Amino acid sequence: MRSEVPNSSRSMILRSDPDVSADVRDQRRLRDHDADVVIVGAGILGCALAVALGKQGRSVLLLEKSLKEPDRIVGELLQPGGVAALEKLGLRDCLDDIDAIPVYGYEVIYYGQGVEIPYPENANDPNRRRPEGRSFHHGRFIQKLRDAAMRTPNVNIVETTVTDIVKNGWTGQILGVQSQTKLNSDYYFGSLTVVADGYSSKFRKQYIKHQPVSRSKFWGLELIDTELPRPRHGHVVLGDSAPVLLYQIGTHETRALVDVPDNIPSASVKNGGVKSHLRNVVLPGLPKSVRPAFEAALDKGALRSMPNSWLPPTTNKTPGMVILGDAMNMRHPLTGGGMTVAFNDVVLLSELLNPEKVPDLGDTKVVLQQMSKFHWQRKNLTSVINILAQALYSLFAANGTDPSDPGYTTNYSLTLKPETADPQLRVLQLGCFRYFQMGGQCIDGPVGLLAGIIRQPFVLFYHFFAVALYSIWIMLRTRSLLRLPLTVVGGAAVFWKACVVIFPYIFSEVKV
Amino acid sequence: MAAAAGNSFTSPAANALYGSGLDVKDVGGVLQRLFNGTSGWTIALTVFLMLVVYDQILYIYQKGSIAGPRLKIPFMGPFLDSVNPKFEGYKAKWDSGDLSCVSVFHKFVVIASTRDMARKVFNSPMYVKPCVVDVAQKLLRPTNWVFLDGKAHVDFRKGLNGLFTRRALELYLPGQEEVYDKYFAKFLKLSEDAGRKPIPFMSAFRELNCAVSCRTFVGHYTTDEAVRKIANDYYMITAALELVNFPIIIPFTKTWYGKKAADMVLEEFAKCAAKSKVRMAAGGDITCIMDGWVKAMLESQEYREKVAKGVPVDEANKPAILLREFTDFEISQTIFTFLFASQDASSSATTWLFQLMADRPDVFERVREEQLRVRDGDKDRKIDMDMMDKMVYTRAVVKETLRYRPPVLMVPYMVKKEFPVTASYTVPKGSMVVPTTYPALHDPEAYPDPDTFNPDRWITGTAEQQVKNWLVFGTGPHYCLGQTYAQLNLMAMIGKASLHLDWVHHATAQSETIKVFATIFPQDDCPLVFTKRE
Ligand SMILES: Cc1cc2nc3c(=O)[nH]c(=O)nc-3n(C[C@H](O)[C@H](O)[C@H](O)COP(=O)(O)OP(=O)(O)OC[C@H]3O[C@@H](n4cnc5c(N)ncnc54)[C@H](O)[C@@H]3O)c2cc1C
Ligand code: HEM
């Protein structure tokens, strides 16, 4: 039996073929609705990915249900690690001309006492400059990103609402989407379909086994011409109620995000709803300078809310499709990490899917291999941000939570439920705040993690347990020696609590 | 005759037995000796020899009165010949008798060579069904519609007929033209890159045809890159398609590569089917055969839904044929059969067409003149159906090419029950029977001076009336579904080429030698030089 190995001389035409020209690809996008990549959602992730892949020469269709400037209370503070990723993507100028405010670090206020936590200086910068974040109106930033995508060669943005995923009925490979453009049925096909349709993703359910869990909402207010205790810093206000975030997002506007746990009595309908909770419980705990504008905003009444969700990451395993952004992974927005994760994911993914490594995005086997690498390689940054956000929230929001709440972490550990407003958490909160007050390494590390600058999960682990031990030390110091045996038991309980707070999130990160 | 064969089966063995002087009483002793005194090897050898004898006897029995070698090479028969088939070998076989036979491995093959014998096979669906070639079942999957038989086949085919009507074919012309333009530019570049020295163009023609087919069948649902991959890998499918193959697929053999390539094409077309369904449901226009079929399915479904709901439907709006909804895989399988049926035959015809025209400047000139005329002097005018109707001479050239060098020499069928093909010979059930086309198409009574290429026989001669001899596309219930499309494609392609290209054939001693590679090609793969015609 002669065996016939395919021989390249047969494809003589192949080799003399000029590269597929740009207009052919334009035509395929516009006429045939067919591209290398179809991206669902021109939000934070979708726009950046379209630009990155378009620049690599991929043909990209970016689909968005509304191209009007969004007016949302999300994604308004970009950490330095996100700014750096934007820069890598060549999108730094999207932060220009949107009245963005530089952010130099955080101000944490615990029961009225403040501590400044500046972003650490950049060890790699010869001038030892401190990196900066930016805060802004989300909608303006999004429009800049969409503009950039529109200007990128090989990319087209289409206003259309995606309604369904198209699947090869034989192999199950995803081939693109069905959609609704104005009143007409429409369709877009791609070798790779990227689902980046945000926090309430319509398409995640079929493909991801976890679903988001939310136990609180952020209620947003826009404060006009208010003076923050430390301008150009993000403010975290901690006290008896759940945390409040404050940051300036334009020359005259400051955003207040108030975390309101689900089912708390003070926000129940009986007690006058969220509005009276904000007025009676939250307002008194805010810095004095902020209260008038907060009250004015309350009177104006334009209250909006967003669920604060937790969705651990999963590996994309569906041939022909990847799910990214909030659709795939979310953490509490307390630390403002979502966009930083998104932009860094785009940087990493565009490296992994580079045409040199993956000549054909329709080669599902290779793409899936790269997606598995993606899942693990993104962790250096994202696991830090995910765990930090969740652990900090668990630590500081407990005071205001409803005891009947089944708890966030149910999915991951049924037995390890953080109790509400419990004494161990109090000890940890105080210890954490005192730890920050020591300054130096004790703030550079934690804020470097939060800023998306330090990409070492171990550093997070180290600081977290340093805080736990420091908390116990403070407890020991302040209690009388006579009660030592009790205090030792209490210390163990605090340590146990610290573990209960962090381990479920660590476990969630080591899963596939 | 079966009796005669039976005699020759029993006597020699009987003679041998008696001649050795053994008595029935001794038989027990013989067996004992066999089992006691002989080694396993002897037994194996004995069994082997018995099988050899059985194989020969079976062959002789099946062969009966028809022509064929007197004995068979043990087991494999002329298998090695079929690995490297030669036109002359086939021709000798056809000339050896109206019916002749060979046996390869377990397969007994009867070849029907004359016009009437071939027609008889084509038109006997009671006794035969198509089997393409053995390996085709493995590549196309046994569930493929082309292996359907009887009413099931007729019904399925009815659902496809609408895709090849004149009105439907007109829709595909712009797509075809797009591909011609692209490939003509490539031909020029190939010759340019070769320093205007002749290079074989056979594989380039194969690629062109594959691209045209893909464009006509699945439109823009697949990328140019995918089409090129299909065109390139299709070679391996053809290579796997020998009349007779080793019965199982062994890794890294031709059939194995062929199967892999076929799977790739099936997957690509299944994707196209899923996309076509979505696009047609969104109200897209028909741009390819797949669209037409999917649209017909949607219309049937709509009709059924209306009927189920009790909505009155005007008879005029009832679909001509009610189709069920086919899965993506079923659609892919079916479209794949179109590619499968068209690719080798169309590539063969294209290659001969370019060669024959280049060798005959007078023919070339007349085609060119007609092409310009039907375009009212504008060589860039887009092709439409009325224009095609006016291409009388071009059509004659295409038909004469198909007659002179019929791409499909033989069409294998499977005998499903004892088939009394003549009064004196019955083809045994389970064998292969193969009607041929070439002898009918080179029959001097139907086509005087048959070995001369003469397009005028289709215009001023009587060739057009020889419908019984026109077996290029087969006949009977399985006649070629794509015959009109295939001829239009060849006419449109060569017509357009004549206006935009000049080409010169650098004939070699091998140019008129026929190479069999599933279909037929010039042995030297057609060395040509293309230049742009200003
Ligand atoms: C209250 C809150 C505050 C936050 N604050 C910050 C912060 O300060 N800093 C930070 O970094 N992160 C923050 N985040 C997180 C951040 O907003 C998200 O991580 C980020 O926006 C995720 O980007 P994305 O591209 O995945 O989704 P999005 O930016 O939400 O984009 C999704 C896009 O998909 C479109 N879409 C949806 N469905 C369809 C459809 N069917 N067809 C077509 N298009 C569709 C939507 O219109 C939208 O444009 C916050 C989150 C919340 C909830
Ligand atoms: C020059 C080109 C072609 C030649 C010479 C040719 C020849 C043939 C022949 C000889 C048969 C067998 C007929 C029989 O068994 O009676 C056949 C069958 C078939 N051909 Fe073609 N063919 C050509 C092009 C095409 C094309 C372009 C298509 C595309 C759709 C096509 C589709 C088919 C199909 C589907 C069958 C099987 C029909 C059935 O079993 O019912 N052919 N062809």
From TrEMBL, chain A:
Residue ranges of every copy of the Squalene epoxidase domain listed in the record: 191-399, 423-488
Q: Does the keyword Methyltransferase apply?
A: no
Q: Which cofactor does it need?
A: FAD
Per UniProt, residues of the FAD dependent oxidoreductase domain are 36-66
Q: What are the entry keywords?
A: Endoplasmic reticulum, FAD, Flavoprotein, Lipid biosynthesis, Lipid metabolism, Membrane, Microsome, Oxidoreductase, Steroid biosynthesis, Steroid metabolism, Transmembrane, Transmembrane helix
Q: Which GO terms describe its cellular component?
A: endoplasmic reticulum membrane
Main localization category: endoplasmic reticulum
Q: Does the keyword Transmembrane apply?
A: yes
Q: In its UniProt record, which GO terms are filed under biological process? A: ergosterol biosynthetic process
Among InterPro entries, the record links this protein to: FAD-dep_OxRdtase (IPR006076), FAD/NAD-bd_sf (IPR036188), Squalene_epoxidase (IPR013698), Squalene_monox (IPR040125)
Official protein name in the record:
Squalene monooxygenase
From which organism does this entry originate? Glutinoglossum americanum
UniProtKB/TrEMBL annotation, chain B:
Give its E.C. classification number.
1.14.19.41
Work out whether the entry's keyword set contains Coiled coil.
no
Family to which the UniProt record says this protein belongs: Belongs to the cytochrome P450 family.
* Superkingdom in the source lineage: Eukaryota
EC main group: oxidoreductase
Q: SUPFAM superfamilies annotated for this entry? A: Cytochrome P450
Cofactor(s) the protein needs: heme
UniProt-recorded name of the protein: sterol 22-desaturase
Keyword Oxidoreductase in annotation: yes
Keyword annotations: Heme, Iron, Metal-binding, Monooxygenase, Oxidoreductase
A GO MF annotation of the entry reads: iron ion binding
Provide an example Pfam family for this protein: p450
Query: What CDD domains does the record point to?
Result: CYP61_CYP710
**Which residues are heme-binding?**
480
**Originating organism:** Glutinoglossum americanum
InterPro entries linked: Cyt_P450, Cyt_P450_CS, Cyt_P450_E_grp-IV, Cyt_P450_sf
The Gene Ontology biological process terms listed for this entry are: sterol metabolic process
